Amino acid sequence: MPKRYLVTAGLPYSNGRLHVGHIAGAYLPADTYVRYLRARGEEVRYICGSDDNGVAIEISAMKAGATPQEISTRFHQLQKAAFAGLRIEFDVYGGTHQPGFQELHERISQEFFRRIHEKGYFTKRRTKQLYDPQANRFLPDRYVRGTCHYASCGAPGATGDQCDQCGQMIDPLLLVNPVSAITGAAAEVRETTHWHLRLNDFEQPLRAWLEQKQGQWRPNVLNFALGQIKQGLPERSMTRDIAWGIPVPLDDPDAKGKVLFVWFDAPIGYISFTAKLCAAQENDWRGYEKWWCDPDTAIVHFIGEDNTVFHTLIWPAMLMADERHQLPSAVVANNFVNIRLGGDAEKVSKSQTAEDSPVWIEEYLNKGFGPDALRYYLTAIAPETARTAFDPQDFVQRNNGELVAALGNFVNRSLTFAQRYCDGKVPDVAAQTDVDRAHLARGEETLAKVGALIEGHRFRAALEELMGYARACNEYFSAREPWRTRKDDSADCAATIATCVQAVHYLAVLSWPFMPGAARKMLQMVGVADAPVQWEVPALESGRPLGEPEILFQKLEADCMD
Description:
Blueprint: E1 4-9, H1 20-39, E2 43-50, H2 55-64, H3 68-85, E3 92-95, H4 102-118, E4 122-132, E5 137-138, E6 144-147, E7 158-159, E8 176-180, E9 188-197, H5 203-211, H6 219-231, E10 236-237, E11 239-240, E12 259-260, H7 262-282, H8 289-292, E13 297-304, H9 308-322, E14 330-334, E15 337-340, E16 345-346, H10 361-366, H11 371-380, E17 388-390, H12 392-421, H13 434-455, H14 459-480, H15 482-488, H16 490-511, H17 516-525
Parallel strand pairs: 1-2, 1-13, 2-3, 13-14, 15-17
Antiparallel strand pairs: 4-5, 4-9, 6-7, 6-8, 9-10, 11-12, 15-16
Helix pairs in contact: 2-3, 4-7, 5-6, 6-9, 11-12, 12-14, 12-16, 13-14, 13-16, 14-16, 15-16, 16-17
């Protein structure tokens, strides 16, 4: 077992608002995992921040008539607020070009590049690159759009670095009918100089490392990465002809005016943000080495499917070339979440999805919906093995039919009964029956099952176990009929309600990774709100005062998401 855990979530580009697909893809499952680890008593750090450099930011700034810094800072703050609104809690939320983080990130990234260069893993090459004759500039990968060149795909709208449809790396020169994302002009081929990472040098060590993960990683992630190696890994340019980014740290005239490829410096942000956290907590930024260089640390990356190739191949190859840091213990990749508005599922799009749609996290929170309902729904439809769709009507139905009718109903009927007929205290358990003990034993079994599923990154199945126990709790309450035994067998009634209160305690702990707000309410209602959440449920002693019962989840109207 590792001594500690370093958990990261993919850095969002700071050029747009967050939507439900972003949250379901990386940040919510990572937060769920971290909350569980902390409840289990593990030492863990959760690292994230905005990806502020590169083409995406420069394009957005160009379209908005603003500077890249203005755009990245604006959306950095909006994204940070959206995460906080959903109770996704990082130990540090940095930014690769944000004040307070930029200097250290640039220094570490440039040192990283120099070390790999000194080891001889870069090839300087005069290459052909697509060029926009109207804008009078070379076009880095994401400035190019065209049709995917893979015969098995052929999807339109592929960028010059990756096809979002098939997930494979793209050679921009092979794109069919490439056009500039700046002006829409047909791209021309011209020559320039760049430094290429020789990924083919790492095919064998990458294959050996990945094959060791058989049975541990999700098969779709592992099979994809191994399939890419089987095809052969091409050299990959790690420099770009743009102005916004980290300058290439070489004393070479050909490096003038070039910056590091954003996908070179972005994953280094995991390291630089950890270093900044250590500087703040320990007054020594090199404290990050405990988290990144010590083999007793398990490094777990949570990402969306479009980042799989970078986190399973390019980033590990960079780490192998650098030879100073540990490779990831796990890469947990989710597929895309689309949106379904009464018809076919479609990709969430800034241009096609209404600005006030609650699929945008900012709008969801502005409309007053609670974070727990969305956290629940996005976990229930988690795209762990295939793409799924956010359906507003399904969201409402599952909130009302599952959270309200099952989990919320049991908590309310049990604790209201205890408040009304048991003096607001945990009743005497002396008359507990085998049925009562069996029900609590199921709670203990559910705690173990949910924990094991979370450890295996099977969050959807873990949530199903939790809700299965909630439904069993309702069945137990109905079968034991405390409203009847209150009149003719008070001891039996007391034992029943004591069992129900203890079951609420189980449900509170089980809910903590998924719905922390609801979990805190339940802990308050069973009288243990001040204690830190631990992945165990000690018995509540008879006579313990209970908190005031309150409604756990609000019922939603059918048209509330319109």
